[in-house]
Design brief:
Blueprint (H helix, E strand, L loop, with lengths): L2 E6 L4 H12 L6 E8 L4 E8 L2 H7 L9 E7 L14 E2 L5 E6 L5 H10 L10 H13 L13 H10 L6 E7 L2 E10 L4 E4 L4 E4 L11 E4 L4 E6 L2 E6 L10 E2 L15 H7 L1 H9 L3 E2 L4 E2 L8 H6 L2 E6 L1 H18 L2 E6 H4 L10 E7 L5 H12 L3 E6 L5 H5 L2 E4 L12 H21 L3 H22 L2 H11 L4 E6 L4 H15 L2 E6 L16 E5 L6 H13 L3 E7 L11 E5 L8 H18 L18
Parallel strand pairs: 17-18, 17-19, 19-20, 20-21, 22-23, 22-24, 24-25, 25-26
Antiparallel strand pairs: 1-4, 1-10, 2-3, 2-4, 5-6, 6-7, 7-8, 8-12, 9-10, 9-11, 11-14, 12-13, 15-16
Bound molecules: 6-O-phosphono-alpha-D-glucopyranose.
6-O-phosphono-alpha-D-glucopyranose binds next to helix 9.
Length: 622
């Protein structure tokens, strides 16, 4: 979603904010802005624009060395169209307060009506301006009973009182002209970290924006705030109770968020998959003893092994990984497993019994619906497990147990390496649960051995990129596609369709292949591309039948098949042969050609692969 970066130090803030915003651009990018405190001129200089950061940059004058405090924002519109007026930072009606906000204020309409009766003026359609005006109103109208006490400054006091009135979520960076060397950050429901550098402090919604300056951070929890001045900082709750927060070291190398010679982050991340999976599996596959070691679960194996039901929650690509997890856990561990869209689960009054375990899968660890599903499950007494990539993220901190993906930052909006790693973690979990329940030593060793070979097999698929590009060239002018698979490859079909939709804007439907005849078959016209995942598996013959159904209606088949399968050639207009893998582990290999196909199709159609329209990397609003 939106990105926040704020700076207080000795250097000119403007270039630091712009650099930070560029690193956050992948989160949301329909408009952007900065607000800089100028102590000489006694005001706040706000520069905003619709469009990308590069457009904003063109509007900026030379950095002013006196402007050493500022806040910046890149927006992904929720309330109001993405124009300059709606872009952040927003000023309050007095022009003294400026804020950058991530999240959604649910009671903004009530507050707005009330503030208008008090004489506050609004210029934008955003919910954020309500926060600015509420802080501004309280700031300018404090006296008598309500006045700040015990030496507390009026700015911090007004922020606290305003935040107590808000219903919804926020990550905030706030400045005030009367306190030109003060910066306030606050958090509820949207991520916010506070970085401590040498004589400088930063606030950001994502570590990527600040790692260039510092790796020492404090993670704010919900309802917490930080007040920063050049002399130091203090952390409090929004009820003004002082709290001590632990300083954490983030492990994050800058090279991990650079393009490294690749044209796009998505391509880089597709190619990183062998390395990323090796990181994910590293030290976790114990070949000698024939077991899987997952440190973050060690205290909860008993609950997992005895679980009667496992409920997986996720959104988007992570939900597809969850579906594969469902098949894996049922197949290898024989535990009843179901996968839910977190956005549905959180509102459906779910049944959680004593022996239900809830798993949340999330690359970012910040997806609002997935987090709410975890909270819902915890409230009802379930043991919760997070399969998360971003270390220290909210879902990682909220769940009882966890397994990190360890694949490094994923910047491309279309998820690739996180998906394969999510499946790898679910495979490890299923194998270990199976071992603890009923799998034989030979079976466990077999799966561990095969899992360890997956990175090398993905490497082989990557070498097919030019061949897949030619397929994209021949087909990417078509506006409607089908993706079909069965069993373990059915979720891969869903993921292949999603990848194509997200970045090339081609309409694509993913289906379990047999479902095609219950409706979608009506769509098939001459030349319509139909992608089949038809590798050697228990349903191989069945899927050949589905391929015939498409061919009989003039559809054009792109088939992902097992290397050495001569039989399949007769059915394929385009063939992509991938290395042989046991059926249960195939998704990690079969998804890769579909990622590459979507990538080439999007590039050929001239789209910005890393910043697809309307999408955001991390969806921190409902
Ligand atoms: C967004 C992203 C998707 C991602 C989904 C869930 O929609 O664009 O790529 O799969 O959110 O994100 P999460 O961080 O929870 O895995």
């Amino acid at each position: 979603m939106c990105g926040i970066v704020a700076y207080l130090g000795k250097k000119p803030a403007q270039p630091i904010l712009i650099e930070g915003l560029k690193r956050l651009e992948y989160r949301g990018y329909d408009s952007a802005g900065v607000a800089l405190i100028n102590p000489d001129k006694g005001g706040i200089r706000v520069i905003k624009s619709s469009g990308r950061i590069s457009v904003l940059e063109e509007l900026l004058s030379e950095p002013d060395p006196k402007e050493v405090v500022g806040i910046g924002h890149t927006r992904w519109a929720t309330h109001g169209e993405p124009n300059t007026i709606n872009a952040h930072p927003h000023l309050d009606y007095t022009g003294k307060i400026a804020i950058a906000h991530n999240g959604i204020i649910e009671n903004y309409s009530t507050l707005k009506t009330w503030l208008i009766t008090k004489g506050c003026k609004f210029v934008s359609e955003t919910d954020t301006e309500v926060i600015a005006n509420l802080i501004g109103y309280l700031y300018s109208n404090t006296d008598g009973e309500d006045a700040p006490r015990d030496g507390q400054n009026r700015f911090e006091w007004a922020v606290q009182h305003a935040l107590n009135e808000l219903v919804g979520t926020y990550g905030l960076a706030i400045v005030c002209t009367d306190f030109p060397d003060m910066l306030i950050g606050a958090k509820k429901g949207s991520p916010l970290i506070f970085g401590l550098g040498k004589n400088e402090y930063l606030i950001a919604s994502d570590a990527a924006a600040i790692v260039e300056h510092t790796t020492q951070v404090i993670y704010l929890a919900d309802n917490e705030m930080v007040t920063i001045t050049p002399k130091g900082f203090h952390t409090k709750t929004i009820d003004n109770i002082e709290i001590h927060k632990e300083l954490k070291q983030i492990e994050f190398s800058l090279s991990a968020i650079e393009l490294d010679g690749f044209k796009h982050y998505m391509l880089k991340e597709i190619y990183e998959q062998p390395k990323a999976l090796n990181m994910c599996l590293g030290g976790r596959l114990d070949m000698r003893d024939g077991r899987i070691v997952l440190g973050g679960i060690s205290k909860y194996w008993r609950e997992f092994t005895r679980a009667k039901r496992i409920v997986i929650n996720a959104c988007g690509t992570a939900w597809h990984a969850g579906l594969i997890g469902e098949y894996l856990i049922e197949q290898l561990a024989r535990i009843n497993t179901e996968t839910h869209y977190a956005s549905e689960f959180r509102y459906r009054n779910p049944i959680i019994e004593d022996d239900t375990v809830v798993i949340a899968i999330s690359q970012s660890g910040e997806t609002a619906d997935t987090l709410a599903a975890v909270e819902q499950a915890k409230e009802r007494g379930a043991v919760t497990l997070g399969i998360v990539n971003v270390v220290g993220s909210t879902i990682a901190r909220t769940t009882d147990a966890g397994v990190y993906l360890r694949v490094g930052p994923e910047i491309g909006v279309a998820s690739t390496k996180a998906f394969t790693a999510q499946v790898a973690v679910l495979a490890m979990l299923a194998i270990e649960l199976g071992r603890r329940r009923h799998l034989s030593t030979e079976q466990v060793r077999f799966y561990i051995e095969e899992l360890s070979k997956i990175p090398a097999k993905i490497e082989e698929v990557l070498s097919l990129s030019e061949h897949i590009k030619k397929i994209a060239e021949a087909t990417c002018d078509r506006e409607n596609w089908l993706f079909l698979g069965r069993g373990f490859n059915y979720p891969v079909a869903l993921e292949g369709a999603l990848k194509l939709k997200e970045i090339s804007y081609i309409h694509a439907e993913g289906l379990p292949a047999a479902e095609m005849k219950h409706g979608p078959i009506a769509l098939i016209t001459k030349g319509m591309p139909a992608v089949f995942i038809a590798t050697k598996c228990s349903q191989y013959e069945k899927i050949i039948g589905n391929i015939e159904e498409v061919r009989a209606r003039g559809g054009r088949t792109i088939i992902v098949a097992s290397q050495g399968d001569e039989n399949i050639k007769q059915y394929a207009d385009f063939l992509i042969s991938v290395p042989d893998v046991p059926e249960e582990l195939q998704p990690m290999v079969t998804v890769v050609p579909l990622q590459i196909l979507a990538y080439h199709a999007a590039v050929l159609r001239g789209h910005d692969v890393d910043k697809p329209r309307n999408l955001a990397k991390s969806v921190t609003v409902e």
